[in-house]
Design brief:
heterotrimer; A mainly alpha; B alpha+beta; C alpha/beta; B: alpha+beta; Ubiquitin-like (UB roll); Fumarate Reductase Iron-sulfur Protein, Chain B, domain 2; 2 domains; 5-stranded mixed β-sheet; two-stranded antiparallel ribbon; elongated; C: Flavocytochrome C3, Chain A, domain 1; Methane Monooxygenase Hydroxylase, Chain G, domain 1; 5-stranded parallel β-sheet; 4-stranded mixed β-sheet; 18 helices; 20 strands
């Protein structure tokens, strides 16, 4: 029976035939979707591109990233000798003075890696940039496809290490947010508009970090018997609820981190004064 | 809204060729696409081939592509289209066509056979199984699957690359692996089957680039990507790519 | 005639629903090489539609339950017309059949102590239905399907061929059971996809084809339910039993028209849903028949208390057996107290929080939302009776599931008669499939390997040619005059459905049934001229034309038996004979083909194709009768039966 499992004669077309493969229904169009399917990948690509352009500029700028008491999340912690001094801020000169480039590059590698290997962002850029696939049931333009089975994409499997790295980064950004409860003279017990910006940002960073699929696996997803680990089960459920919003959190935290940096830039470049609340 | 005449394009043909045929056909309030296909059969095209069974979204037989999107015909209400809109119905485009809207879904049955079955735990007789609801919840979600194969159809890994069909089991059967791996009493590990490793090595989990089309088309609303495929990827990482986990298990085994 | 491909098997199972797959698993495990043949894809059988659960007295939720109580409930539900030995075997073996599913990977909902959870259902004294939300049938079919696959994997390891000892022929139809004398010799089949004919030679054939609902207009059944197994048995010379008993499920969807008839699971009521008429009244309290008065609540308050405290309260009358509820709804609608679309209201929205409804009745929530745009957590559903199940079927031996009068023919599941008497309880269907599916497979395999195994029946060339000619007739059909257009099979089918629905439906009258027989005779003549366009490859018009033969045969059985039985009992309600008659309890009606050679000529409405005979049943075994109170038996059994 052809609807059974007997092998079918091989199709005549070359690899990459896809929906136009000789055995399939003869339809020339790559897809028959009538909705605006291109909108989502186009918007995704535009959003990601905008962030890449902005963050590249800011990361290489090596300027305007500190205005007491605020340090841009792009430059925190600052690990080289050439960092702007930040009082009781995350100035750890691990790299010494041989590092001549922007110190942001040293630390951004971690959040960048975390987001680059994130299960949501993977979907977003595979669809938006690589058109693999551009949208559901829309034929992709590539002749061959091996997914994440080979180098370099097989490296996506190390996502959990970037998660491990993302946690201390988030801790440091939390520390920065605490430091933001000072005024420009480093006196404690003050808040400005920037403090609020930092608060929102760190909340979103944590939510995004903890909603990570690897995190969900590590805290409990890997278990076979939830009933034997009630605490981990509760945590897993909680992370699961966050995880359901991973996409929204990914975007929200991406925007908030850029905004926090931009806010510091405005202050440091003197374009704007931080309105103090108290 | 009362009845109106709708314009349909239905793919007709077989493996030798075919094309979209135009029809004008009556549509009444509350009808679904499958009703219209049935009306075509009864009034204009008695030999129009179509699969269907339950007509209530429970059996997963009437899978097709409507305006280019993989859907169940019985669960697609005509009210989602405007009366002026042309409704295009084609067979699933990832599988060889048999005739009209019927395709050869044998690929899926072949893949089903490649997943080692549930292994009952030794020393536990029928009637002695004890499982907690929280432990069966995850696998139960996957067992909601009605095997409509829309996820298999939409998945670009095989839809756009015929040559990947040998290596890739498709979302439905990777989900089956996840279901068994999460089954609280599955004793595969005791019989030497490593489902986590096999997911990657034998069922082609690495081909999945988690672009989530399977989840988008699932008529049962199963979160295939988030709850089955990604957790399975993480489990494969435990086995294959995580030296810490590997080291930990070595030490634990030593200690025993 | 071109050579038809032949294959040799030990057991051929026709139908791949719960009964067929369970039979195939058993036959294969007994060592028989087994072929399963089904009209749809593997795993799509109508069993997936079963929602509520599998009745088995495991006593996980209420330890007072045991097989005797289950037996008692089954007999009460069937109004004592059940083939009692079947009901006994069913009640005794159901728990083992359910537990065995777990060893094959099934995942039922759990109790807090980790056992299989069980839910309440109409007619069952205790919570008894093992379930998975409201998709139990899907779980059952998938588990059996996966068990088959695991057996095939075993064969692959041993023989290098998945299908060495167990093969599923998907999308194939059997049109004739072939015979060598009195013995079954095989089946004549066609592949729906290619239209190609083939013969499976086998000494034992298990029919597990399900029901007949597609002969009715408003039905919960899918296109497959055309009474194929019933007709195949008749044509092979086996009798059908009590075909007048057709169950109308009380709650089918009534709107929109395209989904009219689709089932609304009884769990809705088991979990607290109530029926109201257009005046907002819970009318079921007015419809509790005398035989059930002592078992059901008399007030809404008591009924509501029962959900939480079933030991000290009686259950609400919404949970009466299906026939009672269906008749009550019918009466309310007739009295002008129906809902806007001709049903009544079934309401859970005021009974449970939205969260609970979505968790316990997910597919109902889904079904109404998607198909009717109704949010059942916020508003009431509109429901009405829909043709659901046929209690009648192939007359079988209780222990072996062997059909009478044809050696080597077995039947299990809905296609077999007797088990459910005049009315089936919800949940008893899935357990029936498992219990008797297994028995049919077991005995078919034993027979195939038994003493006659060396002298296999032979398939007669003439029978094959005749069957092929019969199957091809629609392609050369002509109208009444030379060259006029042949009949459209779709039109014939619609007329048949309308006839059965209107004239042999839920409430029956003598004159209407006589009229139905006239109409059936007319349709029979026209069906011989049913023609199709196109070629043999996946041609649904052709398939329907062939199924018409079966539907017409079965419909005639239903109409004739219904006309004969002058009482009302279970799934058979006569307006002109509204009472249950104790004398009729002992009477079984058997249908046989009028022309024993298997010809289908008779176009005369009075004569027809079917002969009906009345036989007296075997008395119920005394130890089983002793499970009931005397006062209850008096209501069902004739005087002389009581004193035997």
């Amino acid at each position: 029976m052809a609807t059974g499992t007997d092998p079918r004669p091989k199709s005549g077309t070359a690899p990459g035939g896809g929906v136009r493969d000789g055995t399939r229904a003869a339809i020339a169009a790559a897809h028959l979707r009538t909705d605006r399917w291109w909108l989502a990948p186009a918007a995704t690509a535009a959003g990601l591109l905008a962030f890449v352009v902005y963050s590249t500029w800011r990361a290489f700028a090596n300027a305007d990233y500190y205005q007491a008491p605020y340090v841009s999340p792009f430059y925190s912690p600052c690990l080289a000798d050439n960092c702007a001094p930040m009082r009781s801020g995350p100035n750890w000169e691990i790299f010494g003075n041989w590092w001549g480039l922007s110190p942001a590059l040293l630390i951004l590698i971690f959040p960048l890696g975390f987001r680059l290997t994130c299960y949501y962002y993977r979907k977003a850029y595979y669809r938006g940039f690589w058109a693999s696939p551009p949208a559901c049931a829309v034929a992709e333009p590539h002749k061959k496809y091996s997914g994440e089975t080979r180098f370099p994409l097989i490296l996506q499997n190390i996502h959990r290490y970037f998660f491990y790295a993302a946690v201390p980064v988030a801790v440091i950004l939390t520390y920065d947010t605490v430091l933001a409860f000072r005024d420009e003279h480093h006196a404690w017990g003050h808040m400005g508009l920037g403090t609020l910006v930092f608060l929102v940002n760190i909340a979103l960073i944590w939510a995004y970090t903890l909603s990570c699929h690897s995190c969900r696996h590590i805290v409990g997803g890997k278990l076979k018997h939830f009933s034997k680990h009630p605490v981990r089960y509760r945590v897993w459920q909680w992370v699961g609820r966050l995880n359901a919003r991973h996409m929204q959190l990914a975007w929200a935290s991406l925007v908030s981190v850029a905004l926090a940096d931009f806010y510091v830039y405005l202050l440091a470049s003197g374009a704007f004064d931080d309105p103090r609340l108290f | 809204m009362s009845s109106y005449e709708a314009r349909f394009k239905v793919w007709r043909g077989d493996s030798a060729g075919g094309g979209l045929e135009d029809f004008a056909i009556e549509v009444n309030e509350g009808e679904v696409v499958l009703d219209i296909i049935h009306r075509l059969q009864a009034t204009q095209a008695p030999d129009l081939a179509v699969r269907w069974n339950c007509k209530a979204g429970k059996c997963g037989s009437c899978s097709a592509e409507i305006n280019g999107r993989p859907r169940l015909m019985c669960m697609t209400r005509m009210s989602v289209f405007g009366p002026e809109e042309v409704v295009t119905v084609t067979p699933l485009r990832a599988f060889p066509v048999v005739r009209d809207l019927v395709t050869d879904v044998g690929f899926n049955y072949a893949k089903a056979r490649e997943v080692p079955a549930f292994v009952p735990p030794e020393g536990l007789g029928a009637g002695e199984y004890r499982m907690q609801q929280v432990d069966v919840d995850r696998s139960q979600e996957f067992r909601k699957c009605i095997e409509c194969f829309l996820c298999q159809d939409t998945c670009h890994v095989v839809r756009d690359h015929e040559e990947n069909k040998g290596a890739f089991a498709g979302p439905r059967f990777l989900m089956r692996v996840a279901e068994l791996d999460m089954h609280p009493l599955d004793a595969a590990a005791d019989s030497g089957i490593d489902r986590k490793r096999a997911a990657q090595d034998e069922h082609g989990l690495g081909y999945c680039n988690i672009t989530k089309c399977c989840t988008e088309v699932c008529p049962e609303g199963i979160k295939i990507t988030d709850n089955a495929l990604i957790p399975l990827k993480e489990r494969a990482v435990d086995r294959k790519y995580d030296p810490l986990v590997w080291l930990g298990s070595r030490i634990r085994r030593r200690g025993k | 005639m071109a050579e038809v491909e032949r294959q040799q098997w030990d057991v051929v199972v026709v139908g791949a629903g719960g009964a067929g797959l369970r039979a195939a698993i058993e036959a294969r495990e007994q060592g028989a090489r087994t072929a399963v043949i089904c009209k749809s894809l593997f795993g799509k059988a109508h069993t997936v539609m079963a929602e509520g659960g599998i009745a088995a007295s495991m006593g996980n939720v209420n330890s007072g339950d045991n097989w005797q109580v289950h037996f008692r409930d089954t007999l009460r539900g069937g109004k004592f017309l059940n083939q009692w030995r079947m009901a006994e075997l069913h009640a005794r073996e159901a728990p083992d059949r359910v537990w065995e599913l777990e060893t094959w990977g099934a995942l039922f909902d759990r109790t807090p102590d980790g056992r299989i959870s069980q839910r309440n259902f109409g007619g069952h004294e205790y919570p008894r239905l093992a379930h998975v939300g409201d998709r139990t049938g899907l779980e059952l079919i998938r588990t059996l399907q996966q068990k088959i696959v695991s057996l095939q994997q075993e064969d692959f390891r041993e023989h290098g061929d998945y299908e060495a000892r167990l093969k599923v022929f998907q999308e194939c139809t059997v049109t004739r059971v072939l015979k060598d004398g009195d013995r079954v010799s095989g089946t004549f089949c066609y592949d729906r996809e290619s239209g190609r004919f083939f013969v499976l030679e086998a000494p034992a054939v298990v029919l597990a084809t399900g029901g007949i609902g597609k002969s009715f207009k408003v039905t919960s059944n899918s296109w497959e339910y055309t009474g194929d197994g019933h007709a195949l048995a008749l044509l092979a010379g086996a009798p059908l039993l009590n075909m007048e008993f057709v169950q109308f499920h009380p709650t089918g969807m009534v709107w929109p028209p395209s989904v009219k008839g689709i089932l609304v699971t009884e769990s809705v009521r088991g979990d607290g849903g109530v029926l109201r008429n257009s005046e907002g009244k819970r009318f079921m309290f007015d419809y509790v028949p005398d035989v059930f008065k002592a078992k059901y609540a008399q007030s809404e308050e008591e009924g509501d208390r029962w959900y939480d405290d079933p030991d000290h309260n009686r259950r609400p009358p919404e949970l009466l057996p299906r026939d009672e509820v269906a008749r009550a709804i019918n009466a309310e609608v007739k009295a002008g107290r129906g809902s806007p679309h001709g049903g009544v209201f079934l309401d859970v929205s005021t009974r449970m929080p939205a969260e609970v409804i979505k968790r316990r009745l997910p597919s109902m929530y889904h079904q109404f939302k998607e198909l009717a745009d109704v949010d059942i957590t916020a508003e009431a559903m509109e429901v009405g009776p829909t043709c659901h199940y046929v209690m009648g079927g192939i007359a079988v031996d209780s222990d072996t599931a062997a059909a009478r009068e044809v050696t080597g023919l077995y039947a299990a599941g809905e296609v077999a008669g007797g088990m459910h008497g005049s009315n089936r309880l919800g949940g008893n269907s899935l357990s029936d499939l498992l219990v008797f599916g297994r028995r049919a497979g077991l005995h078919a395999a034993r027979y195939a390997a038994g003493p006659g195994a060396d002298d296999r029946p032979r398939v007669d060339e003439v029978q094959v040619d005749t069957a092929a000619a019969e199957a091809l007739r629609p392609f050369s059909a002509e109208g009444p005059e030379d060259g006029s257009t042949p009949e459209n099979p779709y039109t014939l089918h619609q007329e048949l459905q309308q006839t059965m629905n209107d004239l042999v439906g839920i409430i029956r009258r003598e004159a209407e049934m006589a009229q139905a027989l006239e109409k059936l005779a007319e349709l029979r003549v026209r069906a011989r001229r049913a023609g199709v366009e196109g070629h043999r490859q996946f041609n649904p018009g052709w398939h329907l034309a062939l199924d018409l033969r079966n539907m017409l045969l079965v419909s005639e059985c239903v109409a004739r038996a219904a006309l004969e039985r002058t009482e009302s009992r279970g799934g058979h309600t006569r307006e002109d004979h509204p009472a249950m008659d104790r004398e009729w309890r002992r009477a079984n009606l058997l249908c046989r083909l009028a022309d024993p050679t298997g010809g289908l000529a008779a176009t005369d409405a009075v004569r027809g194709q079917i002969d009906l005979v009345r036989v007296t049943t075997e008395p119920i075994r005394p130890d089983l009768l002793a499970l009931f109170e005397k006062e209850e038996l008096v209501k069902y059994l004739a005087e002389e039966e009581l004193y035997e």
